[in-house]
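User: Fold both of these, please.

Assistant: Here is the first one.
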Amino acid sequence: MPDFLLNALIAGLTLALVAGPLGAFVVWRRMAYFGDTLSHAALLGVALGLLLNVSPTLAVTAGCLLLAVLLVTLQQRQPLASDTLLGILAPTTLSLGLVVLSFMQDVRIDLMGYLFGDLLAVSPTDLAWIVGGSALVLLALLGLWRPLLAVTVHEELAKVEGLPVAGLRLALMLLIAVVIAVAMKIVGVLLITSLLIIPAAAAQRHARTPEQMAIGASLLGLLAVGAGLALSWFQDTPAGPSIVVAAASLFLCSFALPRRHA
């Protein structure tokens, strides 16, 4: 197997592994629009990283984390509905990133790669960021699984039990921000949330417990990455969109199986 294909496979499988349980929380808490906002802001992080001569991956990670904190703060202090606020910030950050990039005439970047991913171009450095970031998120998610699940099931009851609800909500958003930052190289800023949501939504139909849904989402994500890479390799299709198409196909196939009930 060529080195670039092996790097792509390891990166995709690593991300799919952590996107499963995290995507389950995105589906349960209906945070898809939040993920979209962070993914759109990732392009602004790329632009600022190039402008300040900082690693784009590091700049995107820092930008997504800061935006997550800003969103939590604004949601608590402003009178607008959350979806309205997200609807303002998502296109604004994406457009601002494109405007900043347009001023850097002496910098040549693969804009399509950032928008739609370039998995087959993952370098050893990119791979280290992806594996390291995904491992940290997975470890944090395992440690916070029970408290996050309690807050997701019944937030008011979690408050009564003494759980730090606001802190847990912020922690979940920060974990999503890190995954979006490291996933940018794989599926691009416009398709990141699909890798979080589609496998989790497909697994939800046949899971009896939260743990089954998280594991099922990871397994479906792994299958989608493998199928998408195979399609890209043999048919010369773009790798990131091919993975999303494979995930969507698995989601449609899930309707062919009888739904399980607890």
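And the second sequence with its predicted structure:
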Amino acid sequence: MAHDLAVHVVDDDIAVRQSLAFLFATAGISTRLYDSAEAFLQACTGATAGCVVTDVRMPGMDGLELLRRLRDLGSAMPVIVITGHGDIPLAVAAMKDGAADFIEKPFDDGAIIESVRAALDRQRWDLDRRSAAADLGTRVESLSERERQVLDGLLEGHPNKTIAAHLAISPRTVEIYRANLMTKMRASSLSELVRMALAAGVGRGGDPQP
């Protein structure tokens, strides 16, 4: 699954913003620029994807407060904090608050590109996983009540005859329902069906996993 992810650069220094924009552009990374944490939060929505690169020291809301605000909003975007000389305690605090990484000024071009790519890769993987889980949940919801009952029996390890007896239907009918649910779940084997059902939270008393 493809996701168009961008790096969101938040820094009050226009020279730094322009330098990072040029650097990321040469690396083929889509970039958005903001001159303050407040400007970024105003533009940010729940659907905003990518990663954030923010200076730790800025007028108004600083990088640490931005990081905490994003976490309070439930954002899953990785945040990379840029720190100046002597800001190690702030960098450590940022990591404790969930920052993906911190980069010290003057930063090495290769190091910050590598950090951003790693952050984008992590979110891309997370988005793919969430999308796949949602798709599995949709497939489970498409099952009829009887197909779901047959699936529950299979997850309990029962053979067709036992499931048939429990549901008061013939083993042949169980086979038909089993074939139908395999088709709807797009499973090529029983083991794959079991893995998919468990991933969707079926058979363990849970809702589909995010």
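The chain is about 55% helix and 10% strand.
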